[in-house]
Amino acid sequence: MSRVFGLVIVSLVFGMLIFGCASPKAPGVPPVPAPPVGAQAVPPSEPAAASAATGNLYVIHAPQYAVIGGKNVLFYEIYLANRSADGLYKVEALDGSRVLKAIEGAELNESLRAPVNGVNDYAVYMWVELKDGDRPVAISHKLYFEGQPALEGAKAEINYAAPIVISPPLYGNGWLAAEAPSNFNHHRKAIITCAGSTGVSQRYAIDWIKYGENGKIYKTDAATNEDFYCYGQEIHAVADGEIVDTKDEIPENVPWTPSPPFTVTHGGGNFVMQEIANGTYAFYAHMIPGSLRVKIGDKVKTGDVLGLLGNSGNSDAPHLHFHVATSMDALFGKGLPYAFESYEWEGNSDWVAQIAKNASWDGAFGTPKTMSMGMPAFDNVVTLAPAQNST
Ligand SMILES: [Zn+2]
Q: How many angstroms separate the alpha carbon of residue 321 from the centre of ligand 1?
């Protein structure tokens, strides 16, 4: 049973694979070099690497300041192109000479992937926390290699534009923000390159699953979709805006059995794509077939019911995949942070291990803590309510 339950770790991710583009850049299996034992840090005074090498280090999307799980976070990726990461043992994020974040050891192993252009291109997933009031203008990076000069670059101005404020897509207590932003969530690994443009549309995506009174996400044996507490829950528009794309005829899957092969047209299952601001799109995926209550061209209001939470598309268990991005194609574009006016934090759940053991979460329905103007983080369990200014 545990093996089957373990599938949930990857199966809830929409778009982990690379596909669909006319000339996709498949990532292959990510090599993860081990940090050398006893390696010495390169002194900060060491000259920068040659300009040609420096040019290979870059940030695709400038880091955007966001409040995630109550913390001030820069959540982004840096890329190392056309150069092996062999010997890489430390990555620093810098404000001038000030080290904002250093990643090494096990954390670097888990943060380093080769998702972009084949075996020679690497990405480092960055999670940089800032103290309250700390507002560096720009950020740069330094990569340390054993026996080689350090590589400096990937300088970018930090984007302090306030994230869009939205109402939650679901209401009630016990909502687990599975695969929400963290340095190790699966959504941000869906780095997709198409026609020379690379994006991470799912960077801030969340897979919403609901805990019930028994401290589990299902009532009995998880054998049917209906056994899941989240199944059939109403999904609400997070803002006013026009419906620009939908799908409503994809059959549902049996929980925790292999999903159908991922395709561009079916990966999101039954979905709603809504433009919630100019060039900003909210994506609601994996709904019950036939449950959509909107069609393309409808102009909906915040809180309107769009459809019902289901288990269609690239999904092995009922959940709502929700993200906000710059593209109305869910696989492409730039993933954007957002903020709820408020939500109640109930606790954190070690949900992957818990589900694997068929165990209950004992932290459910504790004393909540009100969080404001931010989004939940990985493993947060929260109570969601409509924004007070929603109609
Ligand atoms: Zn997802």
A: 4
